[in-house]
Recover the amino acids of this structure.
């Protein structure tokens, strides 16, 4: 019996353990932290052996294959030891993909991947396909393969998940954009992070498709130097595309092998240029999979978006409150500010991941009337924007930040939470940060 060791007892780890057990592996789950009660219960029910608050090295090194959770860096001593012994260390994506014959639509990028994943899944489902959604979102991919496998999967893939693939190949791959993010995991080298994202196409061939943003310099430069075997279907807001998607007179046009679909951007339920791109990517997939054009149009008109991503919360005294807590990097906040149509009170701050704020200066000059800092250390934000905005306030809690915004914002203006930073200094994660924002707004 082959031995599967799972490092990390979270969603992806426990899902992999369930699938491993079903496929006849001898499974052992090891977590350096504490495994939550919910997951312990599952492991007990499936009679899977586990340990917490330690990795027993002797047991881990007995593995035939190791599934490593995406949160564990490759630089950890135990992972290095496994590699020295040539024991395969893979991600949940690689493991689960080996146990299903489904077709995969894989979506990665620094920003926009969650919206694009949910939108693609929404259209395919409404179009009548039996399709699951997994990866960096929702229930574990491996668990779904074990318990309710489907012929199609839309997978949101982080760079960490792609680092752990060997043979995984999506029939359709989407790369939404690449901007510097998570550089602390890539030796602070942007090129390492870029290469990681492009692993999504490494096993594709001429029968597969690669959908990408042709306006993204980083992507187009990489493609020039590194030929890609699959069929390229770019999308663009600025240039005309022969095979792919582009914008013409406020209409999205998608052309694949002379088959055309046209959709006015005014009908899109999600606002902002970045969402036009997300819609292009999702609609291109749907066109490839022969979803009816009317279904694609209806779905783009009625899709409500992702929680914590430019989410309209409430209008109070004619001031619109918007929750964009999912903006954990500068580029995501750029999109949010770009989508603002009125003077904005901007709530920003948290754990800085080596941010360079210069690209935000033009938008801040044009749209932001006051900045409310929400972080333990706000000095970098104050230094960056001191010359752009007269009114910069520091706060220590979400309630205080929202109350301050309420005092500053006037009729027909907006209050935008778009932190551009990670949340770990004051909150558990960006979801908790967004929920606290919504609660504080509702209490006004």
């Amino acid at each position: 019996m082959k031995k599967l060791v799972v490092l990390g007892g979270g969603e992806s780890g426990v899902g992999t353990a369930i699938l491993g057990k079903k496929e006849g592996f001898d499974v052992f789950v090891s977590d350096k932290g504490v495994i939550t009660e919910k997951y312990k219960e599952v492991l007990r029910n499936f009679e899977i052996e586990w340990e917490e608050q330690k990795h027993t090295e002797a047991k881990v090194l007995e593995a035939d294959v190791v599934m490593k959770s995406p949160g564990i860096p490759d630089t950890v001593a135990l992972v290095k030891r496994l590699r020295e012994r040539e024991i395969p260390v893979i991600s949940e994506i690689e493991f689960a993909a080996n146990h299903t014959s489904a077709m995969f639509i894989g979506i990665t990028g620094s920003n926009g991947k969650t919206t694009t994943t949910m939108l693609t899944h929404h259209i395919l489902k409404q179009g009548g396909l039996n399709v699951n959604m997994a990866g960096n979102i929702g229930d574990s991919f491996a668990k779904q393969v074990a318990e309710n496998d489907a012929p199609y999967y839309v997978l949101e893939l982080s760079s960490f998940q792609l680092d752990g693939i060997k043979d995984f190949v999506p029939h359709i791959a989407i790369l939404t954009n690449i901007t510097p993010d998570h550089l602390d995991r890539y030796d602070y080298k942007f090129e390492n992070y870029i290469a990681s994202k492009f692993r999504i196409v490494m096993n594709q061939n001429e029968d597969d498709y690669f959908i990408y943003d042709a306006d993204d310099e980083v992507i187009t430069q990489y493609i020039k130097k590194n030929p890609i075997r699959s069929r390229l279907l770019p999308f663009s807001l600025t240039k005309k595309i022969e095979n792919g998607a582009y914008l013409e007179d406020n209409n999205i046009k998608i052309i694949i092998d002379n088959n055309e679909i046209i959709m006015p951007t005014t009908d899109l339920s999600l606002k902002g240029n970045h969402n036009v791109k997300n819609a292009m990517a999702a609609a291109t997939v749907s066109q490839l999979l022969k979803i009816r054009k009317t279904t694609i149009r209806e779905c783009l008109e009625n899709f409500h978006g992702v929680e914590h991503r430019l989410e309209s919360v409430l209008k109070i005294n004619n001031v619109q409150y918007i929750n964009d807590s999912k903006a954990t990097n500068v580029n995501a906040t750029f999109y949010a500010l770009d989508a603002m149509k009125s003077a904005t009170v901007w709530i920003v701050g948290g754990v800085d991941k080596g941010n360079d704020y210069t690209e935000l200066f033009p938008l801040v000059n044009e749209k932001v009337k006051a900045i409310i800092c929400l972080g333990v250390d706000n000095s970098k934000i104050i230094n960056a924007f001191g010359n752009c905005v007269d009114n910069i306030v520091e706060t220590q809690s979400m309630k205080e930040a929202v109350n301050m915004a309420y005092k500053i914002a006037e009729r027909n203006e907006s209050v935008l939470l778009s932190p551009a930073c990670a949340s770990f200094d004051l909150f558990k994660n960006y979801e908790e940060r967004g929920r606290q924002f919504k609660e504080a707004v509702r209490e006004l």
